[in-house]
Every structure is written in structure tokens, then in C-alpha cells.
From TrEMBL:
Keywords: Hydrolase, Metal-binding, Metalloprotease, Protease, Zinc
Cofactor: Zn(2+)
InterPro entries: Archaemetzincin, MetalloPept_cat_dom_sf, Pept_M54_archaemetzincn
Keyword Protease appears in the UniProt entry: yes
Chain coiled-coil ranges: none
Stated role: Probable zinc metalloprotease.
Family the UniProt entry places it in: Belongs to the peptidase M54 family.
Originating species: Ornithorhynchus anatinus
GO molecular function per UniProt: metal ion binding; metallopeptidase activity
Domain of life: Eukaryota
PANTHER family in the cross-refs: ARCHAEMETZINCIN-2 (PTHR32205:SF5), ARCHAEMETZINCIN-2-RELATED (PTHR32205)
Protein name (database record): Archaemetzincin-2
Gene designation per UniProt: AMZ2
């Protein structure tokens, strides 16, 4: 087991970049605006804790990816940007959330509030929950877990068809396992960055 830790300088480069224009913009923020950003640079931060890897099979260990700082993200030509005509995030609950203490309605209401805070300035709307049967997705029972699983690609296609015209994106949420193809055991979620659809379980 090991934890991924970065120096304060590395975190500043990742979140602000080395761009002099972005550094100058950061330095012009008032103390209140800089408070949350500064919290990310502290090694003992309560908001941005180190990522702990439990084994070599953890996603970060098994699927290494190149790093990306804020400037690279901001200038990515494939980054989808909101416009006055498409500035709404739609949340689509799919299937029941089971016999948990928190109902589906309570959970998605909480999720709506979180998205409004995290994506400040965007409109977030909840779509009426739908049963899995209306999605037309294919299924399987996992040979190892014996859990029912929905085909992730089919679910993305369903969400794409249902995406409102003013949507920045539509996000499907479900407690049912997802699988992207027969050779995979499961997947946590899947998205199309260019079409503005995603799903998580």
C-alpha cells in the first residue's frame, strides 16, 4: 500500500500551470477567492487528501495516464464548453436505488445540489427517474459476481437520444453494474466527451 503525494510546487503547477498570465490571474484573486485554492497546496489539507493505492491492481497503477495541468485542460480543443444555448446539466436516474435508508429522490436532490456548487454558474435539472426496462439496453449476469449488469454502450446511446436540446450534458446514474464489452468484468462509468453524455454506477 502506498500514497501518492506531491510537493506544493507540483500542485501549484498542476492547478495554475506555469503560464504567467494564469499565475498573474491567480495572484489577483482576493483572499476569499484564494482560500479554497490555497487549501489544495497544503500537504496536510483536509480537502485534498493523498490518493492511497491498495495494490498493483488499483486503476492508477494498472492504467497509467499522462499528467495534465490546468492550462493543458483549458486549451484542449476537445474540451466541451457551455454556451447560452447549452448550459444545463441534466441528471437522469435509471432504475431503483434499492432498499437503502436514502431514497432515490433524496439522493438525486443531494447530487443536484453538489453539481450546482461544483459547476458554479451552470443550471442543473433532474429528469424523472426511469425504469431500466425503458432504456432498451442489453444485459448479462456476471459469471464471477452473479450480479445483473447493463451494457454501458447501450446506455450511452439511450442517453444521447434523450438529451434535451439545451443540454450541456446529460448524466445517467444507476446502482446497477455496468460492463463495456464481454471481455471486461465491469466498468465504473463511461462517457462521450464530444457528445456530452455520461453514466456512472
Amino acid at each position: 500500500m502506498r500514497a501518492i503525494r506531491h510537493s506544493e510546487e507540483a500542485l501549484k503547477v498542476a492547478l495554475i500551470s506555469k503560464s504567467s498570465a494564469l499565475v498573474k490571474q491567480y495572484e489577483s484573486l482576493d483572499p476569499g477567492e484564494r482560500l479554497l485554492m490555497n487549501e489544495a497546496f497544503r500537504r496536510d489539507s483536509i480537502l485534498f487528501r493523498p490518493i492511497t493505492l491498495q495494490s498493483a491492481s488499483d486503476w492508477i497503477s494498472a492504467h497509467p495516464e499522462p499528467t495534465q495541468d490546468f492550462e493543458e485542460f483549458y486549451r484542449d480543443p476537445y474540451r466541451k464548453k457551455p454556451t447560452p444555448q447549452s448550459n444545463t446539466i441534466y441528471i437522469q436516474a435509471i432504475g431503483s436505488f434499492g432498499e437503502s435508508r436514502v431514497s432515490t429522490e433524496e439522493y438525486v436532490t443531494w447530487l443536484k445540489g453538489y453539481c450546482e456548487a461544483f459547476y458554479y454558474g451552470m443550471t442543473v435539472k433532474l429528469l424523472a427517474p426511469v425504469p431500466v426496462s425503458v432504456t432498451g439496453c442489453s444485459f448479462r449476469v456476471n459469471d464471477n459476481t452473479h450480479n445483473l449488469q447493463i451494457h454501458a454502450g447501450d446506455l450511452l446511446r439511450y442517453l444521447k437520444r434523450k438529451k434535451p436540446s439545451d443540454a450541456f450534458c446529460i448524466v445517467g446514474i444507476t446502482t446497477i453494474d455496468l460492463f463495456p464489452k464481454e471481455s471486461w468484468n465491469f466498468v465504473f462509468g463511461q462517457a462521450s466527451l464530444t457528445e456530452g453524455v455520461s453514466e456512472v454506477d
